[in-house]
Amino acid sequence: MILLVGSLQLGFLYAVMAMGIYISFRILNTPDLTVDGSFSLGMACAAVLTASGHPILALIATLFFGAIAGTATGLLQTKLLIHPILSGILVMTSLYTVNLAIMGGRSNLSVAGKATYFTMLKETFGGNMLMMTCFAIIPALLLLVIVPIFFKTHLGLAIRATGDNEEMVRASSINSNLTKCIGLAIANACVALSGGLISQYQMFSDVSSGSGMVIIGLASVIIGETLFGKRGVTIGIASAMIGSVIYRIIVAFALKIDLFPSYALKLISAVIVVIALSGPSVQQSYHQMKIRREVRRHAKREASTAYAETHECKQDL
Amino acid sequence: MLKLMNVNKTFNKGTINERNALDHIELHVNPGDFITIIGSNGAGKSTLFNAICGQFLVDSGQIILDQRNITAFSDHQRAFEIGRLMQDPMKGTAPNMTIEENLALAFTRKAKRGLFALNKSDRSKFREILSQLELGLEDRMKTKVGQLSGGQRQAVTLIMCTIAEPKLLLLDEHTAALDPETAQKILAITEKIIARDHLTAMMITHDIHAALKLGNRTIMMDDGQIILDIAGKDRSALTMDELLSFYSKERKKQLANDRMLFTS
Ligand SMILES: Nc1ncnc2c1ncn2[C@@H]1O[C@H](COP(=O)(O)OP(=O)(O)O)[C@@H](O)[C@H]1O
Ligand SMILES: [Mg+2]
């Protein structure tokens, strides 16, 4: 039970990141690798501000700094025409230094004993397991309301169209470079917020805990899509969030029954993504194999009937 | 309306692939003109449109649209007043978005924006416009554009290009990828919209018959130059055979010039 509740809480906190990944990978249709860096960035900012006694400001700041990181990647892509994947890697790598600088050169920072978003709510509403889960759900739920509404506004529509057909966006007199940057900014703001929440939840920030986040987020998105199909933006975001929760539950149970050691987590997420992405190609090669077998069988049958016919002819003679 | 003054564009300058795609282009388009453009493959017709739309900046010369010098504008800035339709029906629309979302995006370039991209009055306006196509699309406004046929997509794109009342409409062989019957239908719709909104339009076509029948003026391009520009009586008197023989004559003249260059 504790296990389930714990993974629910983590799942909803990471769901905010999964939403960010959904925005960049699915809506904007760009592979954004900034995520690993911006997650740690969120952790670092939140930890420093929480340590100095501003837990709520800390979370707001993560949104702001995450957006800056996303914009940086967007500018590299659109202004300097650097390949999207490389742009993300460049910013992610730079952020490693930035994150260390933010934490004053230390690679980790504890906020144990400080007031956080969670402790503040706990003091007011009480802190049983159910309440803690509610606290963890609130940010995800809030974003699940705001972000889909945003994607119905004119700007939101333009961002969606940019991922779908950039040429059409420009032909409609919209600066697609701008919409791309804004989209990446929003995506990374979500990721950083998730990092900030996690750092307050776990009471510490570590500069390397962002590594592999992009794969974990992608795994969540794919789990969601497998369960609910690829549909509109609202359902897409919701299913990515649910995917994140399910991912955490799977991981928790696999760890519990000692299916694999805890350091195997990232390999497992990578495998999930590989399996999910290989689906269509495996299906296709299976289909081709079936056709080939059918053709071969047919050829064999024809050969044998031809043989039989010639024999019959001989007998007639 | 549109003025191109001594516009030049050379691709791959200084390489073995150097190509003078626009060679001292002078063109004055009057308000309300419907110009058809013909010319062989590689003549520079699409490049002319690209130059007007801002796909690239021209090497020299000026482009003036309705008294505004747009020579240095970027493509999306120019798209505010210029609608463009390409040959490929896939290019003009976002396939994973619905018909009404596509239209909304094109429409709001000029229309006043509310909080949401789509509201009731927009929807009824789109319905009204779509119903004029007589393709039944007005009942499928929530269908994703990717599920439509090429002809239907091209019709939607045509609406997107004209819904914001552009000063100039550019059509680049926009029916060439469609089957003959659909092409005829789209062409008829195009004519109707141009007449209804009194649009200034330019249309590239391979169909010389259509080029002489439609519009009020015809331009022929060859090797980056405008080699013929006729309107009015001259144009209505011109037959297809005359046009073709004029074309081959021009071609020969040029070949002769080239030969002179090589021998001298
Ligand atoms: N972006 C480009 N880069 C290099 N060459 C180009 C480019 N666009 C067009 N060209 C060349 O310019 C010439 C004119 O092409 P185009 O305008 O497409 O001809 P068409 O009249 O058939 O539309 C062609 O030789 C083409 O190869
Ligand atoms: Mg062309």
TrEMBL record, chain A:
This is ABC transporter permease. Keywords: Cell membrane, Membrane, Transmembrane, Transmembrane helix. It is found in: Cell membrane. Its main location: membrane. PANTHER family: ABC TRANSPORTER PERMEASE PROTEIN YPHD-RELATED-RELATED, BRANCHED-CHAIN AMINO ACID TRANSPORT SYSTEM, PERMEASE PROTEIN. The keyword Hydrolase does not apply. The chain crosses the membrane at residues 12-29, 41-68, 80-102, 129-151, 178-198, 210-228, 235-257, 263-282.
TrEMBL record, chain B:
It holds the Pfam family ABC_tran. Residues 2-248 form the ABC transporter domain. One of its GO terms (molecular function) is ATP binding. It comes from the Bacteria. Gene3D superfamilies: P-loop containing nucleotide triphosphate hydrolases. Keywords: ATP-binding, Nucleotide-binding, Transport. PANTHER family: METAL TRANSPORT SYSTEM ATP-BINDING PROTEIN TM_0124-RELATED. Belongs to the ABC transporter superfamily. This is ATP-binding cassette domain-containing protein. It comes from Fusibacter paucivorans.
